[in-house]
Amino acid sequence: MKFKNYMYDTTSSQKMSYLMEAVLFVTTKDYIKLLYDAKDFDEINSINDIITYLNIIFKQHKVIFKYSKGNKNSGVESAKTNEKTLIITIYINDKFYNLFLNDFSKVENTIKNIFNHELVHRERSKKINFLKYHPIQQDITNKKKYYSEKREIMAYANQITKDLLRKFISPASVLREINKPTNGLHPVLDIYINLFQKKNTIDKPLKQLYKYMYEYLIIGKY
After folding, report:
1. How large a percentage of the chain has pLDDT more than 90?
2. Is residue 22 one of the residues assigned to a domain?
3. What is the pLDDT of residues 141-166, one digit of tens each?
4. Is there a contact between 153 and 145 (Cβ–Cβ < 8 Å)?
């Protein structure tokens, strides 16, 4: 899939409409600053202490941390955004405690990726006044259905773009890398390619993912 060939035969106003639909001006800097505030607390002796301190700082910003049994190496089991309350809930396991104390940069990168993804859900919910509607049920057991949902495509496009910009620095470099006919550039992008790219055709969800990634890059708001 070549970005430079994936353009729209539309008027300028239509193009701007597409751009504004995709780009929700999501930032994570303030949230990462709050994470550092939690790190400065004294007497962190358990995962419960970390959860307590994180919630003291984050709760007023509609972010809640909860404990969850599991063994994911990142220390984070899952995260979700409630479309009615707009509260982001992050579920952390026991490994988070050791990482928080001894490998904080890994915690920072994990939480940054989570906010990159979940804040897109939150901002889109605000934009379309989601409180008027019933929440959409995610069927994550059906991969194609889950990864085809527009809100997931937008969130993952935002996450992938930010990850690639951290790695390749400039939008032009990211575009060059994506235009190369190889997999392995990003794990989520690989999922979309494996699910929606056939030998000679590309299904709509992957086209939309490329569309939003391109728009995030050319707008310049990540």
Report:
1. 28
2. no
3. 688 888 998 888 988 888 888 888 88
4. no
